[in-house]
Design a protein that fits this description.
The complex is a heterodimer of chains A (301) and B (279).
Chain A (H helix, E strand, L loop, with lengths): L23 H30 L4 H8 L2 H34 L5 H9 L6 H12 L4 H8 L8 H27 L2 H8 L4 H30 L2 H7 L9 H10 L3 H32 L14
Helix pairs in contact in A: 1-12, 2-12, 3-7, 3-9, 5-7, 5-10, 7-9, 7-10, 8-9, 9-12, 11-12
Chain B lengths: L3 H7 L5 H29 L2 H9 L1 H34 L5 H7 L2 H4 L2 H12 L6 H5 L9 H25 L3 H9 L4 H30 L2 H6 L10 H10 L3 H34 L1
Helix pairs in contact in B: 2-14, 3-14, 4-9, 4-11, 4-13, 7-9, 9-11, 10-11, 11-14, 13-14
Classes of the chains: A mainly alpha (301), B mainly alpha (279).
């Protein structure tokens, strides 16, 4: 119908469903608006990060990302993710098993509670841990008396990260496990399989892509969290900086090119996350045709 | 054949107690205990202390800016997010899948990276800012910069809430409208738009809630001038830096109340749009 507009044809075969086709002018205007807007807000920033990072050339760029402080930030970021991600994914699997496989009272309330950290501002998330574990509090005071620092040190960064990334894996796994249904597992148990056998031989193959999806999203957020971690870190240069915090320190120090150099690493990480996420979502969709991984929008970043 | 209900009541599958106990224990330690501290802390504040912190001119200015900018950004996102979702689902254009994947970028990009990058682009003399220099309009280090940052972080919320609903619109509804003589515009206004409205409102509320609490991307672009470009989360941060825990808590509890109210709205909307789809 609109062959002469080339790429501007309606998806969902417009010839077969002419009633759903918008007029070509409308199609062109909307597509141009959408692409212009996304170009300005999504593509231009990505280009700008790399342009600014390489402004002074490749040598300074490599020096900036291999400085001792940058490497310390990379180490702390990876360490934080290495603790937070397994804990939260394991929790996600346990919660999804309880919620998707059994009926019990208060299930909806439980799901709402699991979602709660999504609606807490990052700064308030950090504040919670300062109020709970700061040196002026009973717990923090007792620990400080024994020379254990939590707030303004690494443990608080890990705790805040666990809090902020807490719902992500569970949120993705609950619908995936619900979609795979409980019939296969019930059959396995009736046929004599023990609990763990059922889990490893039946459940895991069904939901492995969902687990990987949850792991990818949790890792990305764990390595990228800024606000909550910023409140509890205490900003000690080279000591308690994750990569997103180190970006801020460099920037506030007017070291713009190094700041963008470290930022470019984080940008590459998030682009890789998007690719993986997209590929995994397609896998999950083909594995469980009835349901796609839900609630992207709830995955408050 | 046994009745499925009997099987379920007797819980053929193992692990219910173990996984539920684990879930509840972990939830209690990671979420409930930390969150409850803020309510305990609030309970120790006297009414006058609380009121003084919440009603000071600086706090009110910060809340007004956070509220206004989040509202403006959510409105921009509701319109642009709808257009993006519609375009992605209905039209074919080059690199559509790449564009679709990129919509999640604000979810994946650390907010400090977004903040410094948007600042560089929109500051006077930046790639975008220089065009606004011509008309003497300041974006970065002024309230419009806050809106720009919040549009960036909020966009995926609207697109990803509206997109699945556009995908699942029953083609026969639009065809029936056309068959009955409605023009394309009439069909949109009378048939399509009402079906999309709950999702659009839910996306709007999610983007608004995210904008209210946003810190990382705003802190760089706003300039952080008290009374002018200081948002509420930043005010909490600066109270903390002065060890004014009471003041920080008072503002935090107001913001928490707002976010929970918005969450409730989203859940109600989700519920009604779910019923609509099922019917």
């Amino acid at each position: 119908m609109f062959e002469n507009f080339g790429w501007l044809s309606t998806r969902d075969n417009s010839v077969a469903r002419p009633a759903r086709a918008d007029p070509p002018v409308v199609q062109f205007a909307l597509t141009a608006t959408a692409l212009g807007f996304l170009g300005l807000f999504l593509f231009l920033p990505v280009v700008a990060v790399f342009a600014k990072a390489l402004e002074k050339g490749l040598g300074p760029y490599l020096a900036a990302i291999s400085s001792e402080e940058a490497l310390a930030a990379v180490r702390l970021t990876l360490l934080t993710a290495a603790i937070a991600v397994p804990l939260n994914v394991a929790f996600g699997v346990a919660a999804a098993w309880a919620i998707a496989r059994f009926d019990f009272r208060g299930k909806q309330a439980l799901i709402t509670l699991i979602d709660l950290p999504f609606s807490v501002s990052p700064v308030i998330s950090g504040l919670l841990f300062v109020l709970l574990l700061g040196v002026h509090t009973p717990i923090g005071g007792a620990l400080a008396a024994h020379g254990i620092r939590i707030i303004f040190a690494e443990p608080a960064i890990v705790l805040a990260t666990i809090f902020v990334t807490f719902p992500i894996a569970a949120r993705e796994l609950i619908p995936v496990m619900q979609a795979s249904g409980r019939d296969e597992e019930e059959a396995a148990v009736v046929l004599g399989a023990r609990g763990w056998q059922t889990f490893f031989r039946v459940t895991l193959p069904n939901v492995k892509w969902g687990i990987l999806y949850g792991t990818v999203l949790t890792s990305a957020r764990a390595m990228g969290e800024f606000g909550a971690v910023s409140v509890v870190s205490g900003h000690i240069r080279g000591l308690t900086n994750t990569m997103p915090l180190y970006v801020e320190i460099l920037y506030d120090d007017y070291q713009f090119a190094p700041a963008f150099a470290v930022a470019s690493l984080l940008t590459l990480l998030s682009l890789a996350t998007l690719l993986l996420k997209h590929a995994l979502a397609a896998r999950i969709e083909s594995a469980t045709p009835r349901q796609r991984p839900e609630s992207d929008a709830r995955m408050a970043a | 054949m046994a009745e499925p209900r009997i099987i379920r009541n007797r819980r053929v599958l193992p692990g219910f107690r173990l996984t539920l106990a684990w879930t509840l224990a972990y939830l209690a330690v990671v979420v409930v205990v930390p969150l409850s501290t803020i309510f305990f802390k609030t309970a120790t504040l006297s009414g006058r202390e609380f009121w003084a912190a919440v009603s000071s001119a600086r706090t009110l200015a910060a809340l007004r800016l956070s509220f206004g900018a989040a509202l403006a950004a959510a409105a921009v996102n509701a319109i642009m997010g709808f257009i993006v979702a519609w375009t992605l689902v209905r039209y074919e254009f080059p690199a559509r899948r790449l564009v679709d994947a990129m919509v999640d970028l604000p979810f994946a990009l650390p907010t400090s990276v977004a903040g410094i990058t948007l600042t560089a682009l929109y500051a006077s003399g930046g790639w975008v800012g220089r065009w606004f220099d011509l008309i003497d309009f300041k974006i970065a280090f002024a309230p419009p910069g806050v809106v720009v940052a919040l549009v960036f972080v909020g966009l995926p919320f609207v697109v990803r809430t509206v997109q699945p609903v556009v995908e699942e619109l029953d083609p026969e509804l639009e065809e029936a409208a056309a068959t009955l003589g409605a023009s394309r515009a009439q069909t949109f206004v009378r048939v399509t738009a009402p079906a999309l409205l709950p999702a659009l409102l839910a996306g709007f509320a999610l983007a608004f809630a995210r904008g209210l609490g946003e810190y990382g991307s705003v802190v760089f672009i706003s300039g952080n001038m008290p009374m002018r470009t200081e948002v509420a989360p930043l005010l909490i941060m600066s109270k903390l830096e002065q060890f004014d825990y009471a003041g920080a808590t008072a503002i935090a509890i107001v913001m928490l109340g707002l976010s929970f109210a918005l969450l409730l709205v989203v859940n109600l909307l989700g519920h009604s749009s779910g019923r609509r789809l099922a019917a």
